[in-house]
Each structure stands twice: as C-alpha cells, then as structure tokens.
Amino acid sequence: MKVSTTTPLPEPVTTTTSEEIIPRSVLFGNPTYASPRLSPDGKYLAYLAPDQDDILNVHVRETSDASTSRIVTQDPSKRGIRIFQWAEDSTTILYRQDFEGDENFHLWAIDISQTDGAVKQAKDLTPGKDVKVSQVITNKRYPDEILISTNARDTKVFDMYRCQYRSGKDDVDVTLTLDTENPGNVIAWGIEDESNEVRFALVRNQEDSSNTLKVRDSVGAEWRELLTFPYGEEGNFVEFCNDNSCYITSSLGRDTKALLKVDLTTGETLQEICSNDKCDVGGVSLDEDTKELRFVSFNYARTERVFFDDTIKQHYDVLEEAAPEGSEVSVVSKTRDESVWVVAFSRSDGPTEYKLYITDSQSLQDLFVSQPELLKYKFAIMEDVRIPTRDGLELVGYLTRSKTEEATPLVLLVHGGPWARDSYGFRSAVQWLANRGYAVLQVNYRGSTGYGKTFLHKGDGEWGVGSMQHDLTDSVQWAIEQGIADPEKVCIYGGSYGGYACLAGLTFTPELYCCGVDIVGPSNVKTLLDSIPSYWGPLRNQMLLKIGDVDNDTEFNKKISPLFHVDNIRAPLLIGQGANDPRVKQAEADQIAFSMQEKGIPVEYVLYPDEGHGFARPDNRIDFNARAELFLQKHLGGRAEEFEQPKGATAVFPLLEKEKTSA
Fold first, then answer.
1. How far apart are CA 202 and CA 135, in angstroms?
2. Residue 1 near residue 271 (C-beta atoms within 8 A)
3. Name one Pfam family in it (predicted).
4. Residue 236, class by beta-carbon neighbours within 10 Å (0-12 exposed, 13-18 middle, 19+ buried)?
C-alpha cells in the first residue's frame, strides 16, 4: 500500500500572542503534570509532578480517584526524574537518573505499596561508577523480571542482563545476571515475546559502517544474518511475528523507509505493507498477542495514520472528532487489556490536554492539563511551511509569528542532532520568542531524519560551509523575500548541532546574522569526536562518513570548524554550556569563547557546573533564557521581562574569571 502526503499550506495566520509578557517561570518552569502512565492492571495512574521543593518526582493515584494522589519517589538530586515506566507487576515504578547531567543513567526501582504510611526506599538496579542503562524491556508474560541493557561489564558496549527486580529486601541489592554478552559491535537488542529471550541484535559493522540485522532461533542457537543495510541505506527491526516472519523497515530498493514483512529464515521480503514517497514510516502499532498490524503513522509535516484494523480506526475517529481544533491526537498509555487509554491532545498554541478514553463506551474523561498556567495566555499558531533551496529541494519548516502584517526580527531556531528533525507542536522556546516580538523559523535542513535516505545523506560531508548550512541561509533569505523577516535583524540560535550551526553561521555567513546564541555547540569537529563517550565507539566511523574524515584530513577539519574562522565573526555571540556534558565537552565552549575574547570580539559565556547536554534544572533553564532574552533585546530590539536570577541557579562566568586571573 502506498500513501501520498499532500498537506496544504495553511491560510495566513493573523493571531498574535498575548499583549502582556508571559513570565519565563511559566514557560520554562516544571510542568504541573507530565508523562501520565497507567499501571498494566489499570488500578493506578502514575505521572510526573513537582514536589514541595519544585523537583519533578513520580506521583501515583488510583485511576478513578484523583484525591488519592501521593508522591512515591524522593529524588535526592535537584534535576528531577524525567524518564519512568511501570513494571508489569503494577506495583513497581522503574525510573532512570543520572548525576548532574553526565548521562550515566542508572535504573532505579521502587515499590509503590506503603507500610504504615511510609514510602519504601528505591533500589539502584544498576549500581557502579560510569554505568549507563541503554534499554529496559518489560514483558507482560514475565511480570517478575526485566531485561536491562547496560555497560557495567565494559563501558564501551552494552550487554543484556536479566533482573529479578522484586527479589531481596529493601536494603538488599538486586543482582543482575548476564544474559547476552555484546561481542563489541551490537548497538541494540530485541526479545521474542513468548519466550522472553534475546533473539535480535542490530550490529554496526566497523569496516564499512553497514548495519546488519541478526536473529537466532533460541538462546542456545547460533546468530545468523537476516539482512544487511549498506551505508546509505536505512532500516531496522520492528517485531517478531507468530509465523516465522518479522516486520522490518527498509529503504532497500526505494528512497523512503517502507514497512515490510520478511521471512525469518531466508530474509526474503514476503510483503511490502506500507510506504510513503515523501517521508519514512514512523510509528508502527501491532496487536501484542496476534502481531497483526493496526496502523502505521507518517510525518511529513503533521502526523497522519494509515489503519489496518477497523476497530482501532473507529476509536481514533472518536478521538479525532473530540480533539480541539488544531490538535494532534496520540495515545500515550494503555492498560494491559486495552480497556482504558490515556490520550494526549497536543496543539501548537497551548498546553497538552490529557484524557482517559474508555474503549467499551467510547467515552472520554478529563484527566488534567500539562501546564494549566498557560491557559491564561494567548499563543501564536505554528504554521508548517515549504521552503525551496538553491538546488531545488523542498524543505519542511515551521513558522511561528508574533505579527503577520509586517516584517519583524527573526530567530532561526536550528534543531540539534543533526540527524533528528523538528515537528509540529507547542514549544516553550518558540512561544517565548514569539511573545517577545520575534518571528521564529525552524527548518528540517538536509541531513534531518524522516524524509528518506537521499535527503538524509545529502547532508554527508556538508557541515559548516556545505549545503546543510546553505539550507539555513536559503531559509533566512526565503523569510526575507516573503516579508516575514527584517533583513537587518536576524539571529541564529540553537543547541548541540544547532549550536554548531550558530557558530558556522556567524563565521561562514557573517553578513546574514546580527547575533547568535549557541548552547552546547561544538566549535572544533575533530576535538568533538575525540572526546565523545566510549560507548559511542561503534558509531564513530559512521559519524566520520556523515561529517567527513576529520581524523585524517586536517585541512578539512579546519575548513568546517568555526574555531579556525573566529576572525570572520562580526556579530555578538552568547554561549551557554553545561560543565558535565558528555557529548560536547566544556572545552568546545571554552576554546571559542576565549579566542573571541582575546581578539576583542563581543562574546558572553555562561557555564552551569551542575548541567550536562542542555539545562535540565528549571532554575538554570530560566536563568539562561533570561540572559538570552536581554541579549536578544539588545541586538534584535524585542521586549524583555525584568531580569531576576533564580535562587537556585548556578551560573558562573569563565570569561570574567579569566579576566580576574589575568589582572
């Protein structure tokens, strides 16, 4: 089955944001409710919410009685819990936590039952220094055990361990049993549901950066190659079926990834089930027991679904009918028997609404709104737009405007990755900038994921001075030509790769931007790759193919690394960095900030000692955005809320410290 996406351009938007300044604390503080999850038996609903110290923790209530809500975790850090799930016993919460942004996430378990009113102590299921959890797999057929992928044996690779998480007393460590050892090149594992055995492995082949799907018939059987994707092809394993076949996604023989059914013994394609000429297969929904296909989703600019199950389609029809105008519907949690769903109604101009959906009666019950404080304000609508490039490609972008009658200062907000994408929805940073008086443009430049292998790999070797950056330049020119952007007031702003794109924009197209904001962006690609975490080792060769051989071509590295072109910078720059960032080390910010300072080029640099790759703590997030807001007001002319440093913010200023030392 083939699907064609033909999303029309929206009518011109005249809606603007609230006339009053929307407080940063409202936009960037913790949500009131987040990540609602039903226990498998449906008795309980768990969700994230702030505790008395405004730290996100897991709360649990009876699904049918909001008054029974209670906090069940006590995160000792100030970062809060952001990732959790139910174990299949319906009484255990599993959550992940790192240390001040180092991304060495441990897996913790806590029993939500109470003894004399006291919450039980959480148990660290993956103790040890530099231990990181990669995958956590639960199985309803085996409710007393979980499978955990972790690098406890060797920090460079992730083995699969079996854990009887309910064993032992509260003060006794739970023992992990090594189930499947990583030979050194496996980057993901998968199980077969009925046996709960590890029977799938995704292998990254170092010699040519191809990916191989490997399967085995049982734990004692030999691994065999099912299918190999040469570098440049995209695909992955989806699920085992009940008839010696499996579902995979694959771009072999086509441009975008299709959903296929494949023979488990021969690797032969039995059926091409669903595809789209403009974008890759996205989500795949299956019946957990029969493995029959329910629907496939695609996202060119907005989410669309192709249904294969009439009953599921009927349910989604009910949900779509009930959705507020402009909302997208998603199901975020279900009970084991699928009698109750948690449904999210997400829109671009307001907070997410969560409701319970009762499948028998096809009825909805209000649950809560993620950030009810946002309901007091008016937000701009996000438009999905199409932007032509100089060489004839079509880029999908998202435009959010504070005014539609005249050109305004523009913030080009560049997504990270770069092998990721922007999508439709409410974004606090976008609405913050729009409320301050700026048009905000987000662009899925070449190299972004989701648009097929050709579009993805058109970004290979195109960092900095190549077509990835040209796409951003062309997008700004488009906004100017459309009367959206004031050509004298354009800022490039981004995090991670978006931070690199900011630095590249200021160094390689200095005439285009009047200022830039770089958050955790690399300034020297060679030093970036030399300092990545050890567990990224299997991915490094493919990164070199996508970026270019900075290992062996010094001149190429200098060509694409903004650090070597600091003299070109004309516009002021604001840098934000986390001291514990394992991906883009502090040195990346230090070296370009100090170089600019020595050359007398305007630069501000804020460092947070207790953050990593981005700012997880609300106080730090609000603090940096307050500084960015004043920076943008100075150089773009928008409005700003009065600056007041949050009490818990930990900002330090390396450039000022260096000046003091030099003096």
1. 13
2. no
3. Peptidase_S9
4. middle
Per-residue pLDDT tens digits for 583-628: 999 999 999 999 999 999 999 999 999 999 999 999 999 999 999 9
Residues 506-531 pLDDT 10s: 999 999 999 999 999 999 999 999 99
Q: Are 126 and 70 in contact (CB under 8 A)?
A: no
* Cis previous bond, 418, omega within 30: yes
* 121: CB partners within 8 A, 6+ apart: 110, 170, 171
Ranges assigned E (strand) in 431-523: 439-443, 485-495, 515-519
Residue-wise burial string across 374-405, b where 16 or more C-beta atoms lie within 10 A, e elsewhere: beebbbbbbbbbebebeeebebbbbbbbbbbe
**Could you tell me the two tokens for 604?**
């501000």
Mean pLDDT of 431-440: 97
Q: Which residue ranges form the domains of the chain, and what is each CATH number?
A: 378-662 (3.40.50.1820)
**pLDDT tens sequence across 415-429:** 999 999 999 999 999
Asked whether 421 and 448 are in contact (CB, 8 A), the reply is: yes
Confidence band, pLDDT 50/70/90 cuts, at residue 172: low
Residues with catalytic function:
496, 581, 613
**Entry field: residues in the chain:** 663
pTM: predicted TM-score of the whole model, two decimal places: 0.95
Q: Exposure of 577 by Cβ count < 10 A (0-12 exposed, 13-18 middle, 19+ buried)?
A: buried
